[in-house]
Design goal:
The protein is an alpha/beta fold and 497 residues long. The protein folds into two domains: 291 residues, no CATH class; 117 residues, no CATH class. The protein is built from 24 helices and five strands. Strands 2-1-3-5-4 form a five-stranded mixed beta sheet. Strand 1, helix 22 and strand 2 form a beta-alpha-beta unit. The chain starts with 9 loop residues before the first helix and ends with a strand.
Length: 497
């Protein structure tokens, strides 16, 4: 990539972008092999989803499980394979960002836009963990690209093809994360805002896309109907809009976090472009702002009324990257190197923190190591694995975290799990929904391995026909942290107390 290459040199810009894309994606894949990047609880939890492919799960639509199933079927049930979809999908999203910018502003802006997206703090950080955000951003970018094609394609046949693609990508995005619903609303508002768009709304194209997306998403709606809308209820619960109705501190915290996870300089350039556009000094394609502002405002409102996690507005960085890329294309300095380089240095420090800390002789503990919550659990599971070689045993716990991480590392590829959760009216997770211990109440010969972070209570022990305390497993992590679980062998569940 060269800040001084001419706009007409499409080949040079394309080579620069794909070189950056290839090197950064390879680097991020190699990062996954580091010993401290063991699975986070949610990643192991999603892995168990992938063993039971479905149209929906307790708290999310299904695509994240499908992605994990693809990579683990190819590369085996390893932590790297579980995570691998993340850097691959973000690389795919970057390609669509490049294509969007290329169509709207030319190859020079496209090259810079792809670079901005790849070096965004949020993208680099999330490339280390498989979450629903990876397929969400991929399909958001793909949908926006296909929609833009419908605005620029000549002839009914070409336009129809891209309307079908818009519907396909949007539907799959809805099956990735419910946040995707903000994009079709934004695209509809965009069409209403222009005379040409209003004319398009009188043609079959937009409605073909809407119906096709709806048909795809209806698979998850049907799943929710059959499961008493458990995923929608969970989404409503985590929004927390029924408590603490006015939280300006949470709003400021959320907005400030967006500046950090986009990258400080990228955020400054975006704000500056918005200011200059309002003053009439620059002009940007309206579609980019329509794909950014509505979602950002909705999540800001959510933050004001209750709280909002920093990643909830992640899709805004698709359009934001193109807008910043356009600003960089108009410059003749090397700011793109320094800004992107700063983000990559910060990301590398986080990615390699345990290795760097050890190299400089810094004693790690839970107060300075961002990985402290996940370290050691794979070693705990290795101690438990020989017991679970007995295939008669079902792993049971009152902890979703322990079922996820112990289940993955001690029994990769297996789903011999049961969840202790007493209230059938309060389903708490996927294990509770699918393998609650009450399902085994009348099987008096079934044997269990109980794992818990605390000793089993007398009430728990009393509801099994026989019990045997197996002691505990403890793995030191730091001088002030160890991961410890208590083990029991139970037989014959009699029912909850």
């Amino acid at each position: 990539m060269s800040a001084t290459s001419p706009n007409s040199d499409r080949l040079s810009a394309s080579k620069g972008f794909f070189l950056c894309l290839g090197l950064l994606t390879l680097y991020r894949v190699l990062c996954l092999f580091q010993p401290h990047l063991v699975l986070f609880y949610d990643e192991a939890y999603y892995y168990h989803w992938s063993l039971n492919l479905d149209w929906g799960y307790y708290s999310k639509p299904p695509v994240v499980a499908w992605v994990i199933a693809i990579f683990t079927s190819i590369f085996g049930a390893t932590s790297v394979a579980v995570k691998l979809g993340a850097p691959i999908l973000y690389a795919g999203a970057a390609i669509f960002v490049y294509r969007i910018a290329d169509h709207l502003a030319g190859s020079r802006a496209a090259c810079f836009s792809g670079w901005v997206f790849l070096t965004t703090i949020l993208v680099g950080y999330n490339s280390l963990f498989i979450t629903t955000d990876a397929p969400l951003l991929f399909f958001w970018a793909a949908t926006l690209w296909a929609f833009i094609q419908t605005q620029q394609s000549e002839g009914a046949q070409g336009g129809a093809k891209f309307w079908w693609l818009t519907g396909l990508f949007c539907g799959l995005g809805m099956l990735s994360k419910y946040t995707m619903g903000a994009l079709p609303l934004s695209l509809f508002l965009f069409l209403l805002s222009t005379e040409g768009g209003r004319s398009q709304l009188r043609t079959p194209g937009p409605w073909i896309a809407a119906v096709f997306a709806g048909v795809i998403f209806s698979t998850n709606i049907i799943w929710n109907v059959l499961n008493e809308f458990v995923a929608y209820r969970h989404t409503s619960e985590i929004s927390g809009v029924d408590s603490n109705w006015f939280n300006p501190d949470k709003l400021l915290e959320f907005v400030g976090a967006q500046f950090l996870v986009f990258g400080p300089i990228w955020a400054w350039l975006l704000v500056r472009r918005a200011w200059n556009e309002k003053a009439g000094r620059v002009s940007s394609p309206k579609i980019l702002w329509f794909a950014l502002v509505p979602l950002f405002l909705v999540i800001c409102l959510q933050a004001l009324l209750s709280h909002a996690f920093v990643n909830w507005a992640g899709p805004i960085f698709i359009s934001a990257s193109v807008l910043v890329g356009m600003s960089l294309a108009a410059r003749r300095d090397r700011l793109w190197i320094w800004a992107g380089g700063l983000n990559l240095v910060l990301l590398s420090i986080f990615s390699h923190w345990p290795i760097l800390a050890d190299a400089v002789g810094l004693e790690r503990d839970k107060s300075i190591d961002p990985y402290f919550r996940v370290l050691g659990w794979d070693q705990v599971a290795e101690e438990v694995a020989p017991i679970l070689e007995d295939e008669k045993l079902v792993l049971v716990s009152d902890s979703r975290k322990l079922l996820a991480v112990i289940g993955f590392y001690a029994m990769p590829g297996e789903f011999r799990l049961a969840r202790w959760s007493e209230d059938p009216a309060n389903i708490r997770d996927y294990y509770d929904l699918r393998v609650n211990l009450r399902d085994s109440q009348f099987n008096t010969e079934q044997e269990y391995l109980w794992v818990g972070e605390l000793p089993a209570s007398p009430q728990v022990i009393s509801v099994f026909e026989s019990s045997e305390a197996l002691g505990f497993v403890e793995v030191p992590v730091y001088h002030n942290l160890s991961q410890k679980i208590y083990l029991y062998r139970f037989e014959g569940f009699l029912g909850y107390p």
